[in-house]
Amino acid sequence: MLVRLRRDGLNVALPSIQFGLVAFILHVGPRSQASLFAIALLLACGLYGWLRTLQHARLILDTPTSRVGSAAQGYVELRGHGEPLAGTPVLSPLTGLPVIWYRLATYHRNNDRKWVHAHTDESDASFLLRDASGVCAVDPEGAEMLVRRQDTVERGDIRQVQWCLLRHDPIYVLGDFHTLGSITPELDTAAQVRDLLAEWKQDHQRLLARFDLDGDGQISLKEWELARAQAKREVAKQRQEVLAAPEAHVVRKPGDGRLYLISDLDPARIARRYRWWSALHLSIFLGSAAAVAWLSQA
């Protein structure tokens, strides 16, 4: 079954632009000034598309699979099966059945009896990925979704196409892994004590009520040291509460622009698809370069 890159519009838009440029060049003739500009654009599009899709294929093939329970913080590849979050279930707007993610595209038939895209609705709720070592939340916001399950329903002049992920579906994720609720090396106890004391000083009356032991309306040096000791105790208590809290893992879109991918397909198959796109863009780039060389010689 053919599975397109559902969110990655560039992989759809670039070939459309490239073939449009080729049609324009053939229409106006290869030696016109406009054609030279179109060939230059074709060359740039081919080079950009080739490098981009090749990079995505290499990320998929070169990133080792991690386990949720032992994954390092940062860019990782995870494989498991999908589960819904506890609480209100995500329901398919097409069937009314529970899903963990969906995208629903709606089309209307125009006066020429052709289907025209009207709008697309997509769930934004996170879901869970579970493997043998643990579970993590997956935030679908900004991800490229490669999903093979597709349902199409036509009712009169309306067509709706849905892609969805269900409970227990195999899930492959390539993205940024973070553990929430754990103590990190950046924890600065002294800075937290200073911040807490600064917060107390903003409410002078409450500070006096707590630490002005002799009632003279001033915080003496001894009383300030008592306040500092109390702040240290409160910060230490907060630290213990954080240490005792269960860790929560989440995968989300990388902040550096790297590929964020969620799929129910085998990663080797996904990498092959990106390689096909890469080969297409490379052939267009080489063809454009050959056209430039031919025109320069002519």
TrEMBL record:
Residue ranges annotated for the EF-hand domain, each copy included: 199-234
MF-aspect GO terms: calcium ion binding
Keyword Coiled coil: yes
Keywords attached to this entry: Coiled coil, Membrane, Transmembrane, Transmembrane helix
InterPro entries found in the cross-reference section: EF_Hand_1_Ca_BS, EF_hand_dom
Coiled coil: 190-241
Transmembrane segment boundaries: 12-28, 34-51, 276-295
Protein name: EF-hand domain-containing protein
